[in-house]
Amino acid sequence: MLDQRPQKMYLEQFSPWLSDFQFQKFDEVEVPGQYLQHKDNNADFIKIDRILPVVDNVRGHGISYKRLTFRGHDGSLHPFAVQYPAARHCRREERIAQLLRMFNEVLARKKESRRRNLFFSLPAAFPLSPHIRMVEDDVSYISLHQVYEDFCNRSGVHKDEAIDFYVKSVEQAMTMRTDKDTKEWLNNVRMEIIQAIRQRIVPDTFLLDFFKRTFSTFPDLWLFRKQFTLQYATVAFQTYLLAINNRYPQKLFFSRAKGNIWNTELLPCTTIVLEAS
Fold it and tell me: What is the pTM of this model?
């Protein structure tokens, strides 16, 4: 039902004041999120020239939101997603992002980390009210789950076929066995089901095939893989350091233009932290 909605809407349907906004006609308003860069002054900050009249309707995994795009006075475009997250979750996530931005300052001062271009990729996020916030939403970013959906659309496979096959196989295995207390047996059954899914439904090369379609030349693919590897190393480090759990494919976004990676819902798991302490 969400896919049947129009993907484009006009800003004047939501706010005539925003559609009439123009640089030097009103007060000079800076593109939001620039104060998170830890700069000494705002002399070089980009001002909002106009707000593009087209609003994008974006459907993600379990969420649907609208995307606004600001045009800076230098001609640059800055898309932002309007979200309605839970206040207790987004505030914790913003604190984690502030900590990682401090780590970026340390990495920028080290010679070895600068040579390897190591940094934590963090989109700008700022609250408008206790239940509304805006997050920088680059159109080049795509999640691993969206790559899977693209594979399903191209190959004619239903998106839930792998999940249905897994659930039915586990139920069938549980009914055929009398002793259900051994965890090792259940893990072996799950591994066999995953191997069957890889052979019948989802091949191992569907992610590589997506990258080959995205990048037309081998040098572009090589540069992307190099940056992707470095960024994924930072993601693995922050996940281990801050005890962040539930890293599902729909929460891992990577840029097809730059190779940067960022995670959504950067929330430490309290249970893991207590066990580690």
Answer: 0.80
